[in-house]
Design goal:
Length: 144
């Protein structure tokens, strides 16, 4: 769990998306790795070997400039404001049962707890609904 949103993936789904998720470390660097069983540790070490990423040479300019970072921060700030407006509006009119019905009717993953359900619905309102997992076809992913 990372903040109010679950941040986990099936191991095979994670391996497919690891470059997109920018996770280049080995499996033993995953938070909570040492709490896993010996078999799970072995499987994760086999599937998630450390990836070496090519570093930029000194001749290449830094990719993000301060202006780009400032523009990105502004976009994120506006996006965050909209998300909290949605969250506040929904929390005043929807109870746990209605949140669950909305998620079920939209074929979305239903997390435990009213707050987490509200977060999923707000994510859907801001970014759109996500498709189910390509491997198991049952659990949905969440935006990070």
């Amino acid at each position: 769990m990372y903040g109010p949103v679950d941040r986990w993936h099936h191991i095979d789904c994670f391996v497919k998306k690891r470059t997109e998720l920018e996770f280049y470390d080995g499996g033993e660097d995953i938070p909570g790795f040492f709490t896993l069983s010996a078999d799970d540790k072995k499987m994760i070490k086999e599937k998630l070997k450390k990836i070496t990423v090519k570093r930029k040479s000194e001749d290449e300019p830094d990719a993000p400039t301060k202006k780009i970072k400032t523009e990105e921060e502004e976009v994120i700030r506006k996006q965050n404001k909209i998300m909290f407006q949605h969250r506040d509006a929904l929390s005043n009119v929807l109870n746990k049962k209605l949140l669950s019905i909305i998620l079920e009717d939209n074929e979305q993953y239903i997390p435990k707890g009213e707050s987490k359900m509200l977060e999923v619905i707000v994510d859907i309102m801001a970014f759109g609904a996500l498709e189910p997992c390509e491997v198991c076809h049952t659990e949905g992913f969440m935006y990070e």
